[in-house]
Amino acid sequence: MNKSPTEELFWDTAEIHEIDGFWYYAERMKPMAAFRSQFECRNDDVFLASFPKTGTTWLKALCHTILHRHDQEEEEEEEDILTKKNPHQVVPTLEFSFLLGRVQHLLLSPRRRLMHTHLPYSYLPEEVTRSPAAAAAAGCSKLVYLARNPKDTVVSMWHFYNQVHKGSAGPLSVERAVESFCSGVMPWGPFYEHVLGYWEESKKRPDEVLFLKYEELCREPKEQGRKLASFLGRSFPSTTDGSGGTDDDDEVEKVLWRSSFGRLKELEVNKYGAVGEQGLQLSHTIYFRKGTVGDWKNYLTLDMAQCIDQVTRVKLQGTGLSL
Ligand code: A3P
């Protein structure tokens, strides 16, 4: 494995390192390596993966709700774990805390495990990425990737980092954020290679790797919710109405509502809670900003937008993927 130069991160003093074409925070590298070498996969594991600021919080809430919806049917609203914990506490990002023991309870849980990673596909533990033939022989975990429009991702990231680093190194300019995004020199970057790693794999192993888009989830939540539930082996039941079967709309709607931006943002736990992150206490509110499609138009100049579009065209050309 090649470890190449260290870069001083674009707006503050955090170091990032490149490993095999991707950039990572220096301080994350030990837990990442531990996750890669020590993680033991189970056949019924569910992995969520995403580039930061592409809707990870939503994906975590949605998948948790789908997998546990039968438990919740018997529970009152206040028993819904999402009313007590932020989605990032319910579904941990494994490489963040692999060495801190914070995910031990999840790793040892006898129940079906739901976990998340921001790591690129090429960095995942071998057990997770084994070949289709080996997977077919041994059974295989499921992996769901969520992608988002690059311009909205940059804008979301820019807001997020300015919140996180408020008061430390001065604000990151939107120009700088766009520059870093396009060059790929940013934590977990390059964005396009990250997305394409999972995209290619979803083409090769559609039964084990599902590729979703934030914009499609916003545009057609019920269809996408049903697709996701069916992929996870938790299809919504059909009701018979005499003319064949139709899916149970109420149940789909309930799941979508439980994980919706409007609901989560207003929950006490997300208004006033905080989560420990990189030695920082991050307020849960920063995970819920606007949750819309196309907000980039309010922040990027025409030149910036065209610059990102050009990189997007070049990177995605011939891949069959549009973002
Ligand atoms: P914006 O900054 O554009 O509002 P991540 O979860 O990967 O950090 O991504 C954060 C983005 O997802 C933010 O986008 C945030 O507002 C949005 N988001 C968070 N929860 C959401 C939800 N339940 N539904 C839709 N979008 C959500």
UniProtKB/TrEMBL annotation:
Record's SUPFAM superfamilies?
P-loop containing nucleoside triphosphate hydrolases
Q: Which InterPro entries match?
A: P-loop_NTPase, Sulfotransferase_dom
Molecular function (GO) terms listed? sulfotransferase activity
Which Gene3D superfamilies does the record match to this protein? P-loop containing nucleotide triphosphate hydrolases
Which top EC class is given? transferase
Q: Does the keyword Kinase apply?
A: no
Tell me where in this chain the Sulfotransferase domain is found: 44-320
Show the stretches that span the lipid bilayer: none
The family classification in the record reads: Belongs to the sulfotransferase 1 family.
User: What's the protein here called?
Assistant: Sulfotransferase
Originating organism: Linum tenue
